Amino acid sequence: MTNLRKLTSLALCAALALSTLAGCSGSSSSEAANASSSASTSVASTSGAEGETYTVGICQLVEHDALDAATQGFKDALTDALGDSVKFDEQNAQNDPATCATIANSFVSSNVDLILANATPALQAAAAATSDIPILGTSVTEYGVALGLEDFTGVVGGNISGTSDLAPLDEQAAMLAEWFPDAEKVGLLYCSAEPNSQYQVDMVKAELEKLGYTATLYPFSDSNDLSSVCTTAASESDVLYVPTDNTVANNTGIVDNICRPAGVPVVVGEEGICAGCGVATLSISYYDLGYTTGEMAAKILTGEADVSEMAIEYTSATKKYNAAICEELNLTPPEGYEAIEG
C-alpha cells in the first residue's frame, strides 16, 4: 500500500511536471506563433502597399502634337514613380465635347482612381461627372475661366487641380511687336467654342492695342468655317495671331495653305501650331507639362498630397521660330529664338 502510494505520488508529480512543461512549451509556441503571425501581417501589409494597383482614366480632347505630348509626359511620370502598378484607360474624344462627357461618365462608372483631363472641354466634362474622384487637368489655359470660378487665386479646391499651358500673354504681344514693329493691323484667329481661346485673344488684343496696333477678332465656330474666316482675316490683316487653340492645332494645314501663299505671317501661342503654320511662338514644352501633371498624380494616388490643396502648376516658356516658313517669307528671327526641331 505504501509502495502504491509512492508510485501514485510519483506518477502525479510526473504528470504535473509534464503538464508544466507542456504549458511552458505551449506558451512559447503561442508566443512564437503570435510573433510569426505579427511578422506575416507586417509583411503582408507592406506587400499589399507595394502591390497596390491604380487605374487612371485619360480623356484627351483631340489628337495633335501638343496634347499627345502632354499625355505621354503624364504617363511617363506616373510609370517612373509607380512602375507597373498603374494602368491607363486612355480615350480620345475626337474633338467632340459631348464625347468627353461620355468618356468621363464611363470613368466614374468604372470607379477609376484618378482622371486626367487633357484640354479644357475634357476638364469641364470630368468636373461635371464627379466631385469625388481626383481630377487633374493639363493643357488647360486658365482654370478660373474653364470652370467658371470667381476670384480664382490658383487653387481650385474640391477634387480638381492640374497644370496650365498659359505662356505670359503680355510677352506674346511683345514678341509680335518684336518681329513686326511696322505692322498696323493684327487679326486674332480663334475658335469661339473654346473659352480659353476667347480668354487669350481678349488679353492679347488689349496688350496689342497698348502697343499701338489695330487688333481685330476673327472668331470661327468650328473647323467647318475655319477656312472662310481665316481667308477673311488674312486679307484684312498684316499679321495673324493664334492662341493655344485646339481646333487650329488640329487644322494647321488650312491656316498655312491660306496665309503662307498670301505672305501673311502667323504668330502663335504654342509650338505645335507654330510647326504647322506659324513663324514664331513663345511656347512651353507640353511633354514637360504632362510630366509635371504625372508627378502630381503620383503624390495623390500614394496619399502624399491632397488634390484639394494643390495649386495649379506652370512651366517656363521658350521663344521659338519655324525656319522653313521664315525663309519662305524672307523673315530673319531676332536674337534669342530657337528653331523648332523636326
Summarize the structure.
With 342 residues, the protein is α/β, with parallel strands linked by helices. It has 13 helices and twelve strands.
SSE layout and pairing:
Layout: H1 2-51, E1 54-60, H2 65-82, E2 86-92, H3 97-110, E3 114-118, H4 120-129, E4 135-140, H5 143-147, E5 160-164, H6 169-179, E6 185-191, H7 195-210, E7 214-220, H8 226-236, E8 239-242, H9 246-249, H10 252-262, E9 266-268, H11 271-277, E10 280-283, H12 286-301, E11 318-321, H13 323-328, E12 338-339
Parallel strand pairs: 1-2, 1-3, 3-4, 4-5, 6-7, 6-8, 8-9, 9-10, 11-12
Antiparallel strand pairs: 10-11
Helix pairs in contact: 2-12, 3-4, 6-7, 8-10
Features:
342 residues, alpha/beta, 7-stranded mixed beta sheet, 13 helices, 12 strands, 18% strand, elongated, disordered N terminus
Explain what this protein looks like in three dimensions.
The protein has helices at 2-51, 65-82, 97-110, 120-129, 143-147, 169-179, 195-210, 226-236, 246-249, 252-262, 271-277, 286-301, 323-328; strands at 54-60, 86-92, 114-118, 135-140, 160-164, 185-191, 214-220, 239-242, 266-268, 280-283, 318-321, 338-339. The chain has a seven-stranded mixed sheet with strand order 7-6-8-9-10-11-12, with helices on both faces. A five-stranded parallel sheet has the order 2-1-3-4-5, with helices on both faces. It has 13 helices and twelve strands. It is 52% helix and 18% strand. Mean pLDDT is 88; it is low at 1-49. α8 (226-236) runs parallel beside α10. It is an alpha/beta fold.
